[in-house]
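PROTEIN ENTRY
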Amino acid sequence: MNNIALRYAESLFELGMEENKIEQYSNDLTTIKNSLDAEIVDFFKHPLITFDDKIKIIDQSFKDNVNPYVLNFLKLLVQKHRFNEILAIINAFKQLHDEHLGIQRGFLYTAKAISASDITSIEEVMSKKEKTKVKLQMIVDTSLIGGIKVVINGHVVDGSIQNRLSNMKKDLLNGKVGE
């Protein structure tokens, strides 16, 4: 995470804490993130597009959808020529939000898509194991053959068939058959 993004994220986070609207800010930033792509970010960086035109676009796009402070924050990014950092700022804000709530984010790798209730069950098991609330993002990885793999902050819990086969192969090569 870069220092610029973190600085802006911390400022918005502190404002959200003062206003007691952290959840709303987080939801607003998700709305903004979901509506951005590389072309839109490039638009806001373009030097030939006037500041006023950029502000009009922000107002038209988000005025009725986000908190006024979040809207002003977007305008500040345009004014300070930092809109190119918006995705990094949103990610940094989300990380601060998670830390505030005691949430660890991780990835759940599966051979095929699983239900939301199965993901919730795995999150509950991992939360007990990690002694903190865990939220997982599912990623389908067909190379796993079956089973699951969970990665949280570099810590890997690998219950995949691929891993079991790999361990069996190592045991066979090291002569640990039947132990």
Remarks:
- The longest helix spans residues 3-19.
